[in-house]
Each structure stands twice: as C-alpha cells, then as structure tokens.
Amino acid sequence: MPYGNPVGVYVYNCVAEERVPIILNDPKIATWYSCGPTVYDSAHIGHACCYVKLDIIQRILKNVFNMKLVTAMGITDIDDKIIKKAKETKTDYRTVAKAFEQEFWIDMANLNIEKPMIISRVSDNMSAVEKFIQGLLDSDLVYVTHDGSVYFDTSKFSIYGKLQQIQDSGEPSDQVKKNKMDFAVWKGYKPDEPSWQTTWGEGRPGWHIECSAMVSKIFGSQLDFHAGGIDLKFPHHENEEAQSCAFHGTKQWANYWIHVGHLNFKETKMSKSLQNTISISKLLEMYSADTFRMACLLSNYRHPMEYSEQMMSMGQEIINKFKYFLQDVHIYVNNSTIDKSTYNYKLLSSLQNVQEQNLEALKNDFDTASCINSMLNLISNAHTIMKLDTNNFYPVSVVLIADYVVDMLTKFGCKLKDSTEQAISDSVIDTLIEFRHTVRSNALKTKDKELLAACDVVRDKMKSMKVQINDSKTSSWVRVK
Q1: May I have one GO cellular component term (predicted)?
Q2: Could you say which DSSP state residue 233 is in?
Q3: pTM of the full predicted structure?
Q4: What is the DSSP string of 377-405?
C-alpha cells in the first residue's frame, strides 16, 4: 500500500485481488489518468458504458468525498488502425484522427461526461516518448532489433505480470523477440507509414509507451488512479506498469487501477471487429443520457453489463419514478387547501438512515446500485405518506427528501431534465394536465365513458410529444425520450 493518508474509501485492487483502502499523499488531492480512444472510428455504446462509469466514480470522489481530482486523458492519434483507415479512405491520417476525436468529444458531452482537465495527444508528445525510450535504452532494459524496432526486455523486470498472472516460457515467439512476452515500445520505419526520427532510428511509438510517457510527463513518477476498460488490463496496462516502474526505478507506478467491465450483447463482447456495435449518437436517438446513466448506476462498475431493451426500460422507469416524485412534491408543498404543517420524524429518521447507508455504500468500492435502491425505498415511503395521510401536512420533511434525491442524482451526473429546447413550455403543459385531471376526476365520479376516452386520447397524444402523464390522486407529468 502507498504511504500517506487513508481517506476512508475502499476500492478493488487487481494485484491484491481484494478491496483495499485508498491512501493519498495529500488527503484531498488525487491524480487520475484515463486511457482515451484510438480515434479511427465512431465511439459505440461499449465506450459509452466505460466512460460513463468512470465519470460516475470521478464525480463521487469529487462531489461526495470532496477530493480535488486532477484528471487527464490520453488520445491515441497515431496507430495501425488509424493508418489503415487513412489508406482505405485515401485521407491523411491526421485528418482521420481529428475528425473522430471531435466526434468523440461531442458524444461525451451529450452523455454529460465531464471533460478531463488535461488532454494529451500522442502526436504532440513525440519528444516525451523519445526521452522515455532513451531512458530505458540507457538502463539496458530494452533492445533494438534489426528492423529498427525497440522491445522491452521482460526478463529484466522480475515483477512482470503483477496485474494479471502471466506464464512466460522464456522462449522467443518469433525471430525478432528475445522472449515471448517482450513488447514493442518503438516500431521500425515502414515506407508507407508516418514516422519520426530518433537517435536510434526512424519509426513511430508502440501503443503502450504512449500512455507511460504522457502520464510521466504530466504526473511524474507516481500516479494515484489509472483507469480504462477491463480489456486494457492485459497487455496494455500490464506493459505500462512494467516500463514505467523500470523507467522510474520504483516497484509501483500506478497505485490504483480502475477497470470497467465489458458491455455485452447476450454474453458476447461488443466490439467493432465483431460488427455488433451501436453508435453513441444512435443510442441517444432512442434513449436519454439520464436513462443510460441510470442503467450504469444500477450495475457494478467492475462487472460485465448486458445491453438489452429490458435494461434500458428499467433505467427509464427509475428515472421517471424520481421525476414523478419531484413533480408530486412540488404539487404537495404548494397545496393551498392546508394551512397547518408539522414534522414527520419517521420520514426524517428514514432520510438520515439512507444518507448514512449511502455514504457507506459509496465508501465500499462505489456501490451505486445500493444507493439507487435505498433512494427508491425512501421516495416510496414518502409517496405513501403524502397520498394516504390526508389529515397531516409535512412539507419540510418531504422537501428535505426531494432535495437529497436531487443532490445525489446530480452528484452521480444525472440532469433530470432534457437539454434540448421544448416546443411547448412547462407552464402550458401544467395548465393542460391540471384541466385534464379535473375533467377525468369528474368523469370517474359520474362514470362518463366518453369523457374518460377523451382524456385517454389527450394522454396518448401527449406521450407522442414525449410528455408522459402519471395519473394518480394528483396528476403529474415528465418529459421522456
């Protein structure tokens, strides 16, 4: 474990294979690096799942535990796949990378993912990459091959495989490598590829060296959090840790690795190579960003998550429950027929218990699912009292619960409202819903089927306009995707 100050939060550690305390050099300042995209194609919902879950964890650290989190992300804008895409489209590789990076940031903004404080692109950091590799060459930890490539010598790094247990026979896998697990930190020159000149020869960086060089340039010899999808654990993160420890002469470079589980289609990994992806823009045509985020909140960040219509429907249903509750609270506290209020100490006690339970759940490896379930139980209890206890009026207790729900969901990154412009103002909708509710209530008393049918037509037309009406004792509505 690192030296420093325990902050009272526990996170899963893949080396220890258990939850360990987060210990920071400064109890309120932490560094965080996320592996960003290789910008050769549009981002899909597998990427959305990863970055939304990482955004949720970052928000918890900042908004719940009051950490000053310095965030950085690396963008791979030179890579085999980018070069291939450039050749296929007969476009300069830099144009390809810039176009898909711009699209990526638009997708992230539409998902309400906070942008990193520092964005580091490989193409802008060739000097840092060269210095990093030169340091490894000077320490005799890498070797240059006949084709001008440079490989990391895993036989000289005794703790290689600490993130994921690796069995190395010690035998070379081809004519270039000395050992099977050795990996390229530099790829030798090829005439049809972009290249850079260095002291050991011309070529371009290997994939793993990019992040190590950029992180070391930004954060130095040690990093608090390093994050990415579970597919990056090996070989990418394993190789990053090895070459960074070797370069800095330390046994531990990143203190905490945060790995997000895959988003699957019926137990099949979602990937571009399998051609089974849904783009983020397509996702947001079908569902709101809040709906997808709620689905992510209901899932453990480390575990696989299965994408389905049922999963998204559940996310939408829960978002609607919270919205309906907030609408009902607004109506409840503005009830003009009651002129005397009191406290409901049972509700206030339930609120305090949920606050304490949720804090403990978030301290325990960011258990957001437990938080959502406890808040659903809380608003259910409040709803019951608001509707059934007609002899008493508890505006303070109810408003405090609503305030807590909004506060927590906001801290998790939910907006609870649409960002797009609406054709009909909320006040007009309020008037229509109130009028319909009055008509429907009278029709129910007189059993007027014609008026009830007319009310149903209004409800269905409003739903087609993305406004869903909730018929209860006091009718309310929410905007839906």
Answers
A1: cytoplasm
A2: I
A3: 0.87
A4: HHHHHHHHHHHH-TT---HHHHHHHHHHH
